[in-house]
Structure formats: structure tokens, C-alpha cells
Design a protein that fits this description.
Blueprint: H1 3-17, E1 30-35, H2 46-64, E2 68-70, H3 80-89, H4 93-111, H5 126-141, E3 145-155, E4 160-162, E5 167-168, E6 171-172, E7 180-189, H6 195-200, H7 210-220, E8 222-232, E9 238-243, E10 254-257, H8 271-281, H9 287-292, E11 297-306, E12 309-319, E13 330-333, H10 339-348, E14 357-358, E15 378-379, H11 390-404, E16 407-413, E17 418-419, E18 421-422, E19 432-435, E20 439-442, H12 464-467, E21 473-475, E22 482-485, E23 489-490, H13 493-496, H14 499-502, H15 514-520, E24 523-528, H16 535-550, E25 559-564, E26 568-574, E27 580-581, E28 586-589, E29 592-595, E30 603-609, H17 620-627, H18 629-638, E31 646-647, H19 650-673, H20 683-700, H21 705-723, H22 730-744, H23 749-758, E32 782-789, E33 792-800, H24 805-813, H25 816-822, E34 829-833, E35 837-841
Parallel strand pairs: 1-2, 1-24, 10-12, 24-25, 26-31, 32-35
Antiparallel strand pairs: 3-4, 3-7, 5-6, 7-17, 8-9, 8-11, 8-16, 10-13, 11-12, 14-15, 18-23, 19-20, 19-22, 21-22, 26-27, 26-30, 28-29, 32-33, 34-35
Helix pairs in contact: 1-23, 2-18, 3-4, 17-18, 18-19, 19-22, 20-21, 20-22, 21-22, 22-23
Length: 842
């Protein structure tokens, strides 16, 4: 059989028959399956395939089970890589993007994925982004979008804002220039208005992984504490702080402010302070970077009065770990009971450490680390709080603050409003016009979409839209005087925060067709990497709630079930110069890894997630051309649970290929068996058939795809055993083969369609109902047990259900495969685990 011809045949047939086109008005129960839509980078590698293959198995199974399935595909098509490619290849971002979409669509089709291509969308299309421009204006009208000055990472060479992740060791990831902190007017969405609902509704997501829910809870970061102030001595100024642990205030030894705190603008700056502030201003503000950095500070020469004892002077320092964008831009330091404060004190050596919490259960050594206390611990050295447990002390200190008018209880959130402005070309234009008289004016709805200009130049650094000679110059919609367009574009998370609603009806006049959205939403099964646990999934939840409030949707949560699939891993390789190598550039010989061309020894590194940067990728097109789609699909689904990582293995590929070949051979025998007067009904094979149907059906809806394949392999083995009987039950054998084809069809759809047709079926598999287990046949007359000698598997044997333990032991010790391992040794005992294992101890 020519596998590639078979695959092309059935892919064409599915296209012609519109086999996977979903209907918005069906009497069948609906099911919406969606994998996170990809960025069109140009090529898929086999690591990408796993995500889509998982969704395809679920989709095909549900369609066969009688559901009206929506399984769409689109493209998350805006983003900086397109601009980089335009610069590198002297092409236009749109041309590069659409060429990649064409290439990647063909790759997905060649894998045989059951997508409804009629619903395809690309987020860079004006027909798509005009709706998000309108939605932005809806939010602006409701006060949920606003503009303010905000501190950003500014690359002075590229003249653009960088995300925290694009700042590496204080330098721009592309230019290498020292990054500056700069205040720019930026547009924000009020996601904080939804903080409590976003947090509370996590509890309703019962079919999401717990680790994802925990990450979202932590990101939202609800906390109860106190907001209070310190008076600055000899200045008419106050420093406001927010703390979740105000009870340790008597252990305070300093007050730390951010380098750009308003107070720094009002005090004399010496050379040491200036150098420190400059260093902070050029450093990344990402939490991961700050967590790793040494904790440092510089003294301002100012002191704050302790709020409960004015005789205590607390030095005011500028610290590198305090950020103006978080909380109030100031904290008080209690090094005895906060590890970050403790590390700062260790680096300065001249700030005090005062223990104010005692534990009867833990040894406290403040020379080594801070003591992070619990609710059962007791306050000491804390004036009127002494003797109270820490929770009691927290309540009492806040009461006292409110009584004295220096502070109050406050609920706070770690979550910050979403800054959506990006100084890039290849993104959705923000629909605002600036007028000297009218200020920021929304673009009228009838003028949407605001489209990107085609005639763009990347020769100069900076924002290409801002540098365009004509595009930004327009009249003010209000007063018709001269105006200027907003030249920033939306953060690309904007597009991915609502695309799943557009799939419900991608031709809808409005952002979402409410009737279609009511029918399809929420997405029943969403699939994607855990790296999207926070930003994408949180923004999508926020957009769904906001779209509901504006009136586009009735649902308030977008995704009912979530699967975060594991990554596909491969070893990494470097040559003698430290240059990464592709796996195909490396050969193994005599236990060594060598460069295929030069013969030089190669260093084999860690087995890691497939990554273009480390070249440890396997090209999908090459694998498809060599082995066919079904083999690759089967391997990425059979070798590991869906949520776990999978190591790429050519041995695994060969194993899948051999199994498919054996299945084909079995099916080719069936015409000779059908109609033959076979033996009596094989109850054991019948039990295997129907148990496999039941178990596989359950496995498919519980992500146990590898187990489902293993069970089908077991049924294959049982069928082969039945074939070797003196007078085989040919009817049951033929039934088992047909059932295997059906159960495997979601995994390897091309070859199973071909085998199904070979058996004379006129209705293709994609139109055939999923087999149902006959519960009356689930009980067999016998079962197979594994037989071990000293814990090692030496044989398997089939026993009658009626066999007693004594009979089982007698048969086991006399099997030839067992007696040769026992030899002359005395049997000390025989352990029988009913219907599973016999272990003979000698």
C-alpha cells in the first residue's frame, strides 16, 4: 500500500464532502473543540503537531459519537517577528505572513486534521481587527479603557518600548543598547475592575488543571492588609505603604522607596544616589529578574518616624527591588521576618535586625535567614501586641492605625491594568485621533477599520507608523481641524483574547453573532501549552466578561475544559565551537556523537523542549514525506499521557509503523475468514472487544490517549491469539478487526478509512457511528495472569474464572517457562494477586 497516496486520497475526499463543516443549527448536542491558534512563523515541527493531534482525536471521536462538532483553525498573525522578517528579508510583513499562512495551512491539511476550514480567520485581516477596534471604543465609552503616563522600557537605538522579557541584562534584546526607563502616554484596559470576579470564578472552572488555577490566583494576587503612612522627618512629606503584614511594624529597620518615587524628585541627589538611580533605570523590571538580583540600596540621608514611636528613626533608602508600578512604590523593611529584607541587610551590614515574632515549634537563627512566621506564632518586642498570636496582632494593629488616623484596612490586588500600547507597525491600529482642541477623539464607527498603510518603510529606527509621511495626518472627527492618528498598535494578546468567539460565525456583522455564540460558547475543550496559563488565558477570561457587559455575549467564562498538553522533547547538540546543530547533522557511532559531515565529535546536551533557537527540532514535512501522517500522529499520542512531556524517538516511530503494518495484514486476511464456518463463540474475545470499546471511549474523554492506543494493541494481540485456536471463532475475529479500525480512526484516520473501504463498507468512517459496548458480553470465562519468579516476569497464562488459588499455583509451577527458572531451588512461597499476578519466591 502506498501510504502517501492513501493520505492524499482521503484528504481530498474529506474536502470534497465537507466532512467536518459544522452547522450552527443542529438537533445534535454541540461540542466546541479548539486548540490555541498558531502564530504563522512559516513551518511546523513535530513538536507543534501534538497539540493539534490531541484536539483532532477528541473532535473525531465526538463527531462519531453523534455530536455537532465545531473544530476550527485560524492564525494569530500580528507580531514583532513579522517586522523582523521584513527587515531581514526585504519583504513586507503582510506578504511574509500570508505566505506563511498558505504554507502552514497546507502542512496542517497534510496531517489530516478535521478542521472546518470554512471558518478560518487571520487576526491581521481588517475584517477581523475592525471588530476589536470597535470593542476598544465600546470600552472607552464605558470608562474601561483609558490613557495615562506609564513607565516603560525604552530602547534608545530602536526607539521603541520593550516588554520586560525583551530586556536582557539591562540591554535591548535586539539592539544591545542600555535600556532606559521612560514615561510615555499609554492606553490601558481596566482589567482590575474585574479582579474579584476573575478570582472568584476560578472556583467554577472544575475541569481546569489545578496548577493553572493556582497560577491565575497568584497572578491576581488578592491580599488583605493595611495602607498606612510614615512621616518624613524634617520634611512636610509622608511615605505611604501597603503591607499584608503590618503586625511586624515594631521590627521595622528601614523604609525603602522606588528609584522613581515622587520623593526622589524633592531631595538633593548626590553622585552615589545618581549612579544607583541610573542603574535601576536601565535594569529590567521583570519579577523573575528582580527575584534573582542581589538586593541593593542607597541611603537618601532622610529618616522616617516610626508610626507608633516617634523616637525611632528609620533610614529611608532607595532599593532596587521596589517598583513604582507595584503597590505604592514604597515598603517598610522588617529583615527578621522577610527574606528579601534580610538579604538587603546582609548586603548593607548596617541596618538592624529586630525579632518580633517567637515560635515554640521552630528554631530561629537570624544570622542565617529570616524567620517566616505562621499564625500560631506569638508577638514579642512589640509593645501593646506582645503575647498575641500573629493573626490577632494583625487585626489589633490595623484597629490602632484606624483609631490614630494613620492607616486603614485595605484589600489589594497584585493584578495591574493591562497596558495595550505597542510602538510597532504589524499590529492593530488603536482607533484614536488627537486634536489640539478636542484631545483624544475616538474614530467614528463608520470609519472603521483604521487600516495599516501598505507603503511602509523599516529603514529608520523607531515606530514605522509614526514615521509615515501621510498616514497619521487626518482631520479631527469632532471639529474638522488638523489631527494626528494614534501611531501605537494593540498588544497582540488583544487578538487572541476573543478569536474563539469569532469562530462561532466568522462572517458576522458584529464582533460576535449572539445567536451563534449562545449556541457554541463556552468552548467545551480548549487545548494549549501551560506557558499560556496566565496572560492569554486571563486576558481571554477578562475579554469574555467585558464582551458580555458590552452586550456581545451572554457567557462569562470562555473555556469549560482545559488541557495543557506536554511538550515534545529532543536532545540538543553543539559542535566544538559551541554552535547548535540540527539532529540530522549528528550521527552516533561507537557510543560517540559525531558531526555527519566533518566527523568531529559533537557534544550532546540536555533533552529539552523542541526549540528553533537550539535547533533540536524535527521537521514535520520531512517526517510526513518519509513515514506518513498516520505514523507520526500515532507516535505523538501513544508514547506518553497527553499532559506529560514526550521524548521524540525514531524507535517509537518504527514501532508505530510496524503496528500499522500488522493491522493491515490482519485486515487483508478477513475476506478469507468471512463466511467460513468458524468455531463456537469465543467469549474471551467478545469480552475483549466490548471491554476495549468501553475503556477506549472513557479514555478519549479523559485525555488518556496513550492508554486508549495501548488497549487497542491489547485487543489486536487477543485477536491474533484467537486466530491461532484450533477452530477459531471467525465471526468474532472479523468483528474485532472492524472494531479496531473504528477505535483507531481518530488516531490514524487515513489508513483506517482505507481499510474500512477494503472491507466493503459503502459509508466512510467519518460518517459511521462510534461502536457501543454490549455490557452483557463484558464478562469472560477466563483471564490472563502474569507469572513472576523472584519478581521478574517469566510467563503469562490463561486461567478459567472458576480456578481456585491452589489450582492456579499448581499450573503455574509446572509451566515449562517457569520450571526452567526455578530449577532445583526450593519454593519458599507463592503469592497470588487475584486475576493479576503470581509471584514465585525461591
Amino acid at each position: 500500500m502506498n501510504i502517501l497516496e492513501i493520505e492524499r486520497k482521503w484528504q481530498q475526499r474529506w474536502d470534497q464532502d465537507e466532512a467536518f463543516v459544522a452547522k450552527n443549527d443542529s438537533d445534535k448536542p454541540k461540542y466546541y473543540v479548539l486548540e490555541m491558534f498558531p502564530y504563522p512563523s512559516g513551518k511546523f515541527h513535530v513538536g507543534h503537531l501534538r497539540n493539534y493531534a490531541i484536539g483532532d482525536v477528541i473532535s473525531r471521536y465526538l463527531q462519531a459519537s453523534g455530536y455537532n462538532v465545531l473544530h476550527p483553525m485560524g492564525w494569530d498573525a500580528f507580531g514583532l517577528p513579522a517586522e523582523n522578517a521584513a527587515i531581514a528579508n526585504d519583504t513586507h510583513p503582510a506578504d511574509w505572513t500570508y505566505a506563511n499562512i498558505d504554507s502552514m495551512r497546507a502542512q496542517l491539511k497534510s496531517v489530516g486534521l478535521s478542521y472546518d476550514w470554512n471558518r478560518e480567520l487571520a487576526s491581521c485581516s481588517p475584517d477581523y481587527y475592525k471588530h476589536e477596534q470597535k470593542f476598544f471604543l465600546d470600552l472607552l465609552a464605558r470608562g474601561a479603557a483609558y490613557q495615562k503616563e506609564s513607565s516603560v522600557n525604552w530602547d534608545p537605538v530602536d526607539n521603541t518600548v520593550l516588554a520586560n522579557e525583551q530586556v536582557v541584562d539591562g540591554r535591548g534584546w535586539r539592539s544591545g543598547a542600555l535600556v532606559e526607563k521612560k514615561y510615555l502616554k499609554q492606553w490601558f484596559l481596566k482589567i482590575t475592575d474585574y479582579a474579584d470576579e476573575l478570582l472568584t470564578d476560578i472556583d467554577s472552572l472544575s475541569e481546569w488543571p489545578e496548577n493553572v488555577k493556582t497560577m491565575q490566583r497568584n497572578w491576581i494576587g488578592k491580599s488583605e492588609g493595611a495602607r498606612f503612612h510614615f512621616d518624613v522627618q524634617n520634611l512636610d512629606e509622608k511615605i505611604e505603604v501597603y503591607s499584608t503584614r503590618p503586625e511586624v511594624i515594631f521590627g521595622a529597620s528601614f523604609v525603602a522607596i522606588a528609584y522613581n518615587h515622587p520623593l526622589t524628585q524633592k531631595i538633593a541627589i548626590n553622585d552615589e544616589m545618581k549612579a544607583f538611580i541610573d542603574k535601576c533605570a536601565h535594569h529590567s523590571t521583570s519579577e523573575s529578574e528582580l527575584e534573582k538580583d542581589d538586593k541593593e540600596c542607597v541611603y537618601t540621608g532622610l529618616y522616617a518616624s516610626h508610626p507608633f514611636d516617634k523616637t525611632i528613626k528609620l533610614p529611608i533608602v532607595i532599593a532596587n527591588f521596589v517598583l513604582m508600578d507595584y503597590g505604592t512604590g514604597a515598603v517598610y523593611g522588617c529583615p527578621a521576618h522577610d527574606q528579601r529584607d534580610f538579604e538587603l541587610v546582609q548586603n548593607t551590614k548596617d541596618l538592624e535586625i529586630t525579632q518580633v515574632v517567637h515560635s515554640d515549634n521552630h528554631e530561629i537563627d537570624l544570622s542565617k535567614h529570616a524567620y517566616i512566621y505562621g499564625s500560631d506564632d506569638v508577638m514579642i518586642n512589640s509593645d501593646f501586641l506582645d503575647g498575641l498570636q500573629t493573626d490577632q496582632a494583625r487585626a489589633k494593629i490595623i484597629d490602632k492605625m484606624e483609631e490614630l488616623g494613620i492607616g486603614s484596612r485595605e484589600t489589594n490586588y497584585r493584578l495591574r491594568d493591562w497596558g495595550i500600547s505597542r510602538q510597532r507597525y504589524w499590529g492593530c491600529p488603536i482607533p484614536i485621533i488627537y486634536c489640539e482642541s478636542c484631545g483624544a477623539v475616538p474614530v467614528p464607527e463608520e470609519d472603521l477599520p483604521v487600516e495599516l498603510p501598505r507603503d511602509i518603510s523599516f529603514e529608520k529606527t523607531g515606530n514605522p507608523l509614526d514615521l509615515h509621511p501621510t498616514w497619521k495626518y487626518v482631520d479631527c472627527p469632532k471639529c474638522q481641524s488638523k489631527g494626528v492618528r494614534e501611531t501605537d498598535t494593540f498588544d497582540t494578546f488583544f487578538e487572541s483574547s476573543w478569536y474563539f468567539t469569532r469562530f462561532c460565525d466568522n462572517k458576522a456583522k458584529d464582533m460576535a453573532d449572539k445567536k451563534a455564540a449562545d449556541y457554541w460558547l463556552p468552548v467545551d475543550q480548549y487545548i494549549g501549552g501551560v506557558e499560556h496559563a496566565i496572560l492569554h488565558l486571563l486576558y481571554a477570561r477578562f475579554f469574555t466578561k467585558a464582551m458580555s457587559d458590552v452586550g456581545y455575549l451572554n457567557v462569562r467564562e470562555p473555556f469549560k475544559r482545559l488541557l495543557t498538553q506536554g511538550m515534545v522533547l529532543h536532545a540538543t547538540y553543539k559542535d566544538k565551537d559551541g554552535k547548535w546543530l540540527y539532529p540530522e547533522e549528528v550521527v552516533e557511532k561507537d557510543g560517540k556523537y559525531l558531526h555527519a559531515k566533518t566527523g568531529d565529535e559533537v557534544f550532546k546536551g540536555k533533552i529539552e523542549k523542541m526549540s528553533k533557537s537550539k535547533l533540536n527540532i524535527i521537521d514535520l514535512e520531512t517526517m510526513l514525506a518519509t513515514h506518513g501522517a498516520d505514523v507520526i500522529r500515532m507516535f505523538v499520542l501513544s508514547d506518553s499521557p497527553a499532559e506529560k512531556d514526550l521524548e521524540w524517538s525514531m524507535a517509537g516511530i518504527d514501532g508505530c509503523k510496524k503496528f500499522i503494518s500488522r493491522l493491515v495484514s490482519l485486515v487483508k486476511k478477513l475476506p478469507d475468514l468471512e463466511g467460513v464456518n468458524g468455531g463456537a463463540e469465543d467469549k474471551n474475545l467478545q469480552a475483549s472487544i466490548h471491554r476495549t470499546i468501553a475503556d477506549v471511549s472513557d479514555d478519549l474523554m479523559n485525555y488518556r490517549l496513550n492508554k486508549a492506543i495501548a488497549r487497542i494493541r491489547e485487543l489486536y494481540n487477543a485477536t491474533q491469539s484467537a486466530l491461532s485456536a484450533a477452530k477459531p471463532d471467525t465471526a468474532s475475529i472479523c468483528e474485532a478487526a472492524r472494531v479496531m479500525i473504528q477505535l483507531l480512526s481518530p488516531f490514524i484516520p487515513h489508513i483506517t478509512e482505507e481499510l474500512w473501504e477494503m472491507l466493503g463498507n459503502k459509508v466512510p468512517l467519518y460518517k459511521t457511528s462510534w461502536p457501543k459496548a454490549d455490557k452483557s458480553k463484558l464478562v469472560s470465562d477466563s483471564y490472563v495472569m502474569a507469572i513472576q519468579v523472584k519478581g521478574k516476569l517469566r510467563a503469562t497464562h490463561e486461567f478459567a474464572v472458576s480456578a481456585t488459588d491452589a489450582e492456579i499455583k499448581e499450573v503455574a509451577i509446572n509451566l515449562p517457562a517457569i520450571t526452567k527458572h526455578i530449577g532445583d531451588a526450593a519454593i519458599r512461597k507463592i503469592i497470588v494477586v487475584p486475576k493479576k499476578i503470581i509471584n514465585i519466591v525461591i
